[in-house]
Amino acid sequence: MTTITLVQGDITRQSVDAIVNAANSSLLGGGGVDGAIHRRGGPEILAECRKLRASHYGKGLPTGQAVATTAGKLDARWVIHTVGPVFSDTEDRSGLLASCYRESLRVADELGARTVAFPAVSTGVYRWPMRDAARIAMETVRSARTEVEEVTFVLFDERAHEAFAAQLS
Ligand code: AR6
């Protein structure tokens, strides 16, 4: 059984085995959570991302997949980078968003991580409606077969926290 916890705050302040990053396929950083993780985690994370690009992801990490690096100076052992889908009005990409959570947990299992913190993937720059994103995130984590003992959703603002809380009840 995986315990699901909600926290409102900054994911870079969490003490967990693995922090999930809402990255982009370049793996070379960006704004939002991605920017915050690289800023606080320091240059070691980007150095590993660059190596991963060179060795495995010349064309970029595909949407819905996940890959781990060191967590640098963050209070975690690993950062798991996943690439959420950009929201579309015309195409149902919810399978790709669910895949981000499933694949991140699969990578966490491979690493032996027991506590994992997730942001609300795709709900910022990638414009996914918060309520729908919360439903997909919660359903996917609830139904995942994983050794992870605790998943913490770290929601940046009250609106996000409320949307996730509504899915708990
Ligand atoms: N802690 C927790 N949540 C945060 C934090 C933080 N420090 N900062 C922002 N959020 P986004 P995306 C919330 O845009 O939509 C980047 O440039 C934010 O309020 O970070 O998946 C990447 O490089 C929102 O609810 O990620 C990609 O290019 C959620 O995190 C692109 O953005 C996700 O917002 C990915 O877009």
UniProtKB/TrEMBL annotation:
One protein family per Pfam: Macro
CDD domains assigned: Macro_OAADPr_deacetylase
Residue span(s) of domain Macro: 1-169
SMART domains: A1pp
InterPro entries: Macro_dom (IPR002589), Macro_dom-like (IPR043472)
TM segment ranges: none
PROSITE patterns found in the cross-reference section: MACRO (PS51154)
Name of the molecule in the record: O-acetyl-ADP-ribose deacetylase
Source species: Streptomyces cinnabarinus
Classification of source organism: Bacteria, Bacillati, Actinomycetota, Actinomycetes, Kitasatosporales
